[in-house]
Amino acid sequence: MTRRWRGRPGVVLATCCLSLLLVAMDATVVNVALPSIRAEFGASISALQWTVDAYPLVAACLLMLSGAMADRFGRRHVFRVGLAIFGLSSLACGVAPGMGWLIGFRALQAVGGSMMNPSALSLIVQAHPEPRARARAIGIWGAVSGLAMAVGPVVGGALTHLVGWRSVFWINVPVMIVALVAASVLLPVGQEGHRRPLDWAGQLCVIALLAGLVWGLIEAPRAGWGSARVLVSLGVAGLGAAALVVVERRVRLPLVELELFRRPPFVAAIAIAMGAFACLGALLFLLPYYLQVLRGFSPVRAGLVSVPLALCSMIAAPLSGRAVGAFGLRPSLLVAGVLIGLGGVALLGLAETTPVWRLMGALMLFGAGYGTVNAPISTAAIAGLPRERTALAGSVASTARQVGLALGIALVGTVVRGDVAALVPAWWAVIAVGVAIVLMGWWGTRGSAPASR
Predict the structure, then answer these.
(1) Residues 25, 92 within the same domain
(2) Which residue among 262, 377, 397, 407 is least crowded, i.e. fewest CB within 10 A of its CB?
(3) pTM, full prediction
(4) What is d(CA 128, CA 387) in angstroms, rounded to the nearest whole number?
(5) Is residue 194 in some structural domain?
(6) Same structural domain for residues 263 and 316?
(7) Is 266 found in the same domain as 209?
(8) How many whole angstroms separate alpha carbon 144 and alpha carbon 138?
(9) Is the same domain home to 232 and 374?
């Protein structure tokens, strides 16, 4: 590691956090705007799902490739290209003439986002070589996601109400410009990229697996689980999974290192990431439906109701990062599972006349659990790996997060076609995930030590 990396860790962290703020806030503002988008285009529920799900699906398909590209071509360069693509596609989303165009531009946003996140995590890791400082930095990075969730719904609701839903995409452009300038001027060049060959066969298998799975889950409620296109889609996913295992065992430098899945902390982190983010994706998709459609709230009021979730996440994330550095992975994972499960319990009794304070209390519990789970996931994903492979390793954890988001949004499509009672299965699923996080967190951290040791 060069001296230039060691001398400016705060600058690196701030610049990377600005990019995360850009991406994370985009997800929350889009969710608040969904009812307005539906009203203008007359969109179906599945079209709205694709508007949201196009991003995590494409990002999940490309994150590991982007991590490998960052290792190959340099993190700073890939990071800046991702910023530019994300900003330009945000501008295009704001002028989309129809749902098809909007979904396509959202997918293009994901191409840029997939290039930013693994590069940003690797830049942060390289700038913080000491394990305890690294854990704290990752905690701060996670707190920015909470800040975005706090600001996003309010800003998105206000823009949708005062200007229109298109403005929720335009707001990304000035933030992108600031982040791009900061990355170009302030980020050090660091080490040269590692010229490892790209695993295109593995990438195609990942695309077949994830695209087939999410497509089938979203279309099944409308077309029927026994329809030909759903069965073909799920069949493609199964073939993609089988082919991925075969291909990655034969490639010298695979896209997905199957040996990582022999490490219990890594397996637990991936499973927990998928479960926790599936709950988050489902909740962020259901909240606007419950508040704006079933209860008639304005976009601004609906955005304000979701702020406690984000604030608790923002507070819990850096505390969890410090706890991981001091006590290891297990305490944070166990606390996160309990909080997420309690949030699901509190949501069970939700009705159209439920006091807002009770809903906000449930969201606070879930938000605290979500904020707590991020730091141990990121730390476990990169622990014990060579530093030059951290971008690729971080991309695996980021992929698990995006897969979870995509699956959560896909699976809740069946419940948004009914009244508030139809939401109950979703809350039971949140409880089940909370229990699973506790069990996986205990199993996957046997023998783990604090990061500072």
Answers:
(1) yes
(2) 262
(3) 0.79
(4) 11
(5) no
(6) yes
(7) no
(8) 10
(9) no
